[in-house]
Each structure stands twice: as structure tokens, then as C-alpha cells.
Amino acid sequence: SYELTQPPSVSVSPGQTASITCSGDKLGDKYACWYQQKPGQSPVLVIYQDSKRPSGIPERFSGSNSGNTATLTISGTQALDEADYYCQAWDSGTGVFGGGTKLTVL
Amino acid sequence: QVQLVQSGTEVKKPGASVKVSCKASGYTFTNYGISWVRQAPGQGLEWMAWISVYNGNTNYAQKLQGRVTMTTDTSTSIAYMELRSLRSDDTAVYYCARGNDGLPFDYWGQGSLVTVSS
What we know:
heterodimer, A: 106 residues, mainly beta, 3-stranded antiparallel beta sheet, 0% helix, 46% strand, B: 118 residues, 7-stranded mixed beta sheet, globular
């Protein structure tokens, strides 16, 4: 079965740039999405189709996807961006999530 | 505005079944699919299944095949997820989300906690 791999944790200082990676076989041939989840809340879509932002998502969130790796980049990271982030893709009609990355802003 | 409102907390014994509902509003129900995603305590997101509300086509995660069924009632704009032969490791928050094969999950329900315990 298809797998997506994320680092368990990433740390960033306020105002700096955070990058979270998601690896999967030929992931660049698929569309990648990213979801933000804060404790006790439902996930929120922050990036879809590799690099598109839904309405209401700040411009500091951006995404890319090429080869075997998709990347979520948060520029000018703020304390309120501290959350778990999950990548997701579709493989032959099956939804696949990465294991999640805890972003710590310190 | 688009909303997905789910049914409440359930406590079930091992071997029992649970049926969780997800009422959609704010959009044309038949124009989008519905997926179900679960999250065990302290764990990540796990995709379970999707259903095309338009034609009823479904696709289930291989590990849940035979135990899970998704249905919809287009007259009330409600999607249902039934999970049978419950085990302790089915304890999780179950989310419905708008989106199916190839599409992002752009709106999510608030989650329904299902606890399986003897």
C-alpha cells in the first residue's frame, strides 16, 4: 500500500520559515494536500493541489511538490501556527495521510 | 456557509456496531462526495472510506473491508458510516469531510467520539 512519510517534529523560532516535508513514491505525480490540526479541533485544509490556498488561509502558507517530496512552507511563522500538520494524497482511489508533524514555535 | 454536523458520543461494547451520522448544509449535497477519517487517541489521521453522493459509489480502506458501510440519504442531506464488529482499537474520533477520490477534504465535521470498551 502507498505510504507518506513525515518527520515527527519540526521546531521554528517566531518570524522564521518552517518547512515540513512529506515523502512518497512518485508523489510529484499526484496532488498533495496539507491539513493543520490544533488540539481538540478538526483538521483544516491549508494547501490543496500542491500549492493552492483555500480562501481564508494566510499567504504565509505555501506548498510545492516534485519528485518524491511535497513541502509545506510557513513564512514568518507565528505562535498561532503551532499545530500538527498532515499531508495527504490519493492513490488509486484510496486516501492516504502522512503520519503527521508537530510544529513547535519557540 | 458549508457545515457538516455529526452525531454525538457513543460508547459501545466489543462486537457491537455503531452508526455515525453527518448532516450537510450550505451546499448542494449531491455535488460532492463524503469521506470518513478517524483518529485514535494521540494518533494521526486515518482515511476510512468515501462515497459519491451522486451515484452511491464507494471505496473502503482495505483494512476495514467487510466491517464498514457508508450510505447517504439525499432527502435529508445526511451521510452515515456504520462500523461493525467493534474492537477496542476502533476507539477514536470519527470525522466526516467533504471530498472524495482526487479532491481535497475542504470541510470537516466536528468529530464523533466512539469508545469501545467492555
